[in-house]
Queue: 2 jobs
Job 1
Amino acid sequence: MTDHLHISIQHLNKYYTGQNSHEKMHALKDIHLNIKKGSICGIIGRSGAGKSSLLRTLNGLESMSSGEVYVLEHALSELSHAQLIQLRQRIGMIFQHFNLLSTKTVWENIALPLKVAGYSADKIKQQVEKLMTLVGLESKAQHYPSQLSGGQKQRVGIARALIHNPEILLCDEATSALDPESTQTILQLLQQINQTLGITIVLITHEMQVIKQICHEVVVIDAGEIIEQGQVWQVFSSPQHQITQDLLQRNIPHFHSALSTTRAAQHRYHALSIQYAHAKNQLFDIQTLLRPFPSAVLLHSQVDQIQQHHVGQLLIAYPIQPSTPQITQQNSLSSLHIKEHGYVESII
Ligand SMILES: Nc1ncnc2c1ncn2[C@@H]1O[C@H](COP(=O)(O)OP(=O)(O)OP(=O)(O)O)[C@@H](O)[C@H]1O
Ligand SMILES: [Mg+2]
């Protein structure tokens, strides 16, 4: 494994054995994945896709059935139990439901891993104070988890996960239990941790919004398989797999309502979605792109800034013509993805 990779997963398979030991559930199927040092990699998929199983194999919480996982240059299958415990100190983890001890204060929750590891009181105080400042919880040291908001509880979870100065942080649905505002602040904190401390972050989520906001790379898994992966701006502007497209369109509430008339009897319009991306410093002319559709009606338009790109999504309806108009790729575009969505009867 080259040293710019923090994680390398090769031919990983994971089976769970059911009640009946003859029944095997193939939860992870021949997974290959490299995660670069200092990157934020998002793993997305529907419920039951295998996200948590995959994340948990990275710190040995879940065993693998075959294949190999290299983490920080260690082959996990070759480690003794003691070596695995040692490696885990270099891999922090945070959870959807925070996993805090309710009978301990914020200070004690964060300090616990160091106490267990037998550090001196001075060292513990120094490290806990540093982390409470990092996550912005200085004023809550003596509070109990029940006295905190969800976002504050997750800050405690993050501080505790960073207590051993890890090189990797694993996040299992870290913002799924939070309201939109707390989600924003936690995502910003994770981004700050990545940028200032250089920690590699692997996060799993079922929300494309989370991926869009802070990830560099995205991996889409379904039924235990990687079905798509790439840089975030690329996957958002040119999703190849139907499941990725569905996950993305869930982001746009009115996308489906705009198409709700597609089942009508009398077809007069075609609906077309156009996804495109161009580098921020490239000028792009939407008029030129839509020139083949002089009578098009714009049903939806959205432009997001993702990494160094503008990623746009258009939904248009155009009158049915004898021959389908052709959209031509413009030089300034980094990607262009066009999809027919059937017919629209009337446009309000
Ligand atoms: N300990 C277990 N024993 C048996 N089957 C399991 C076990 N853990 C998970 N599974 C099965 O493996 C599959 C993947 O589960 P996993 O928890 O990794 O999915 P997930 O993508 O994290 O889902 P969610 O989004 O709901 O958290 C599921 O079908 C699940 O039922
Ligand atoms: Mg899960």
Job 2
Amino acid sequence: MAKSLKSIASSSLDAQLISTLNSREERNIRRKLPEPCTFTLGNTDLIDFNSNDYLSLASSPILRERFLKKLHAAPDILGSGGSRLLVNGKAHSALEARLAKFFGSPAAVLFNSGYDANVGFFSCIPQAGDVLVHDEYIHASVHDGIRASRVRNAAFPFEHNSIPSLRALLTKLLNERPDLRTGQSSLFVAVESLYSMDGTFSPLVEITETIEEFFPQRNGYLIVDEAHATGIFGPQGRGRVAELGLEDKVLARLHTFGKALAASGAIVLTSELIRNYMINYARSLIYTTSLNIASVIAADTSFDMLIDGTSQQHAKSVLAVSRYLVEQLRHRLRTVPIHLLALPAHIQQSTLISPIVPVMTTRPKPLSAYLRTLGMVALPISWPTVPKGKDRIRLCMHAGNTKAEVDRLVEGMLQWAEREKNAEVEEAKDGVIVVQSKL
Ligand SMILES: Cc1ncc(COP(=O)(O)O)c(C=O)c1O
């Protein structure tokens, strides 16, 4: 356990903050920044099984060269001058128009981050009297948007990816709320296409069918967060909604640039009306300085890679190496006690592979620390980021990861499990001796 913070308390505020942090420390859930590192593969001795740089574009010499070339050619690259409502940069406006076309959407709104986009959308679009339902694993940014919205007391979770649970919730809400039945009020369903902590895919087709069935007045709306699918799934990396041809059945889609696209910022794809509404009411768009121009150019250059097909090989590579990891784990973890290492059922069974592979363990921190000593970075994830009892290390795969690196990772995990098992046996023996000596 890290040193207690008590000694530096000098005011009542300090004392309260310290006490709360110490309580987290005692429960082993205090968050800390990891060691500073360069995360890109190739720039470090550490093997990255952690970052969201799924396509390894952050270390792509092609992307870097193209970006620098565009920067050199651009008339302005520094700053942005203020909020979009104060200075509507040409680069910002052009990227929005380009992405609306690329994703086949009537309109698009650029945000500084996916966090801001979710907060902006959910805080202002649902109106008083509307209802919102969301997958229980929905991202924190959606929760924060809901908290600031007019539906904060009318937001309900359904079980993760469960159509029966969604149906039961909708049935209950429709029974209780005649205004939803008549179409006077609206119901919003918020999901992610690929969940970041579990690597599970949302059953988007079934969800759209359910919404259509329950809301024949067309007052049920789906919003899909594609943060972790962007660049990897769908034609030209346009995401799962595009892959499944559901564009017309979704009210809004979110694509973020900070993960597979090695940039920053995000785009909400939606109708012209919603775009206009957000420009008027989305506070995380209005009251913030927009992305600096260099960041817009960076995102634009990453989209060049998607649009001209350069990134498609990266997408294939990351899915191939992810499949290899899953196959290895399915085979090699069979004999390991499940409290030490276990694959969740969907990773055991599914044929649909993603770059996110959680491995459940009751001891994520020691496992992560052990892997680090072997030169590999895979961060532990515990409550409150995931539900209690669902601790894990989350392995994130990248286009630049090799099969040899996967072998090293799997070997490392097995070695750790073996040591833990042996330590448990020793402890049990000591326990027996102690008990015997007491008798
Ligand atoms: C599902 C999901 N939505 C939204 C965000 C926020 O995106 P950004 O990192 O661009 O703020 C994240 C990233 O943490 C995410 O995982």
